[in-house]
Predict the 3D structure of the following.
Amino acid sequence: AAKSSGKRTWRRFQPQQRIRVMERHELQARLDKAVSEEAFGLRYQPVVDIAGGEVVGFEALARWPELGPDPVPPGQFIPLAEETGHISTLGAWVLRRATADIARLQHRTRRLDPPYLSVNVSARQWRDTGFLDEVYTALDSTGLAADTLQLELTESVLMRRTKQIDAQIQALKDRGVSIAVDDFGTGFSSLRYLRDFPIDVLKIDKSFIDGIPEDPQQVALVEGIVRLADTLGLQVIAEGIEEQPQRELLADIGCRYGQGFLFARPLTVEQGEALLRQRNAERAPTPD
Ligand code: C2E
Ligand code: MG
Ligand code: MG
Ligand code: MG
């Protein structure tokens, strides 16, 4: 026992770990300040129809700081914001800003089919009792149609459902908002929640897409997910498409929608609008 506790003491004072702890504290202090100053930015990654390349929606992705040479990756600051509870403030800001941006974009491009907005919502936000009101306020104050809003959750939320979360999701669904499962396949996937839960969209995680078309097992898995989704009446989005052969295989197996650097990186709202105008055909004018 003495030996193992001695080992632990030694480990605790490893210089590398001390640096990590210091960096964390510093990052946390910067994040506190950034949250109070709303010093964040948003980029919008197009979701496209894989066969034709038309833009059907935009996923809002947080950036911090908004500008400058040293961005902190969301994979780093989002988990930190989740631990400290800042994600509630940050998430509310993302909702307000993204709904305002996309409502304006939809208005400026109103002769095109309106693209939808997809927003990432962390587990902690789903547990906030004020979350539903934040969504409604964002919709009401921007005029974004509820049926052009999609909210993304991860499998961890589905695995730790509560009556409150179920009720919130049902209320959102009743209002016309869609629900997508993000990073599908990386969590504790249970086929039962796909059946019991009012999900609209599965987003197949990039780690599965990386292995196609070379790896027959990955191909079989992606194909299986697409078939399953079809059977259950869900839409599928393949995440992280980087190469043309991936796109071709996905089109072949009937995966309709995708996101990835092959089509577009996360863009400013102006760049997103330009791409939409370039890729999407105008609707025939409707007589009124
Ligand atoms: P996610 O929601 O799965 O978003 C997709 C991530 O994959 C984004 O990273 C996007 O830039 C990246 N990506 C898209 N296509 C490709 C590709 O072809 N190749 C590669 N290598 N990457 C691609 P990003 O922006 O760094 O965000 C990382 C994660 O941070 C997101 O994963 C999401 O979980 C989280 N996140 C970002 N913004 C928010 C937010 O506003 N709220 C919450 N709760 N989470 C957020
Ligand atoms: Mg996402
Ligand atoms: Mg994802
Ligand atoms: Mg993710």
In short: The mean pLDDT is 91. Residues 182-183, 203, 205, 239 surround magnesium ion (ligand 3) (CB under 6 Å).
